[in-house]
Amino acid sequence: MTEALHHLLDGLGLRATPEQLQALLTQLTKAHASPVQVLEQWAALERREREVRNLASRTKKASVGTTKPATDYDWNYPQSADEATYEDLLGLGFMTRKQNVLFRGPAGVGKTMLAKNLGLRALERGHTVVFANLSSALADLLRQESLPAVERRLRRYTAANLVILDELGYQPVDARAVDLLFQIVSREARTRVNDPHDELTLQGLGERVSRAACLVPLVDRFTENMIAFDIR
pTM for the complete prediction? Predict the structure, then answer.
């Protein structure tokens, strides 16, 4: 590939590297490919590279981090966990149906691992995802100094196709934080919440939060279309 051609292609914003294009052209030349075949293979290469970079960008923004694959989960360890239900969740039908998913169980049974794997599956399917520790997310929102700033920050959690909030009920939160949580849940119909406390139910959430006017609507909104995944 000549330097002039490289500059022309670079100006088009192509994602495939010069080395990839050169290797493709060499392969197609040896195969005596027609001009149409060259264009088809070139377009296919460019599409793959765009998909790879798009996935990398969405994964970075999602802040899911690292986790073991779902295939490594030991379904024989918990006394009660429905593998078939989780496999159904991996199909992401709950997103199409705009359902919330609540993981419940004691510490150490892999709730966060299973939650993150749903997020990774959604990323692979082309969705945008946000993963956040609930207390960190609320602290982030509470740090904003004006209503416009809060609104801008809220969009990080509400614009994504899938929101994963970890450690619901782990720490007490005040009324203003509950109001912000209501904003996230009410605007995002596909929110998943991971709950680390075996004994905590959404109906008992009031024991961990200060009195807030939106507490009852928050519980009602989240539970009206919810899948509860219990691990015992």
Answer: 0.73
E-strand ranges in the chain read: 100-104, 129-133, 162-166, 191-195, 226-230
Kindly state the helix (H) or strand (E) to which residue 37 belongs, with its residue range. Answer: helix 35-62
* Superfamily the domain 70-230 falls into: P-loop containing nucleotide triphosphate hydrolases (3.40.50.300)
Using only C-alpha atoms, what is the Rg of the chain?
23
Rounded Cα–Cα distance for residues 224 and 75 (Å): 29
pLDDT in tens, 22-66: 898 899 999 999 999 999 998 999 888 888 888 888 888 888 888
pLDDT for 171 equals 62
Q: Where are the CATH 3.40.50.300 domain residues in the chain?
A: 70-230
Tracing tokens 């970079």 back to the chain, one arrives at 53
Q: Which amino acid makes up residue 71? A: T
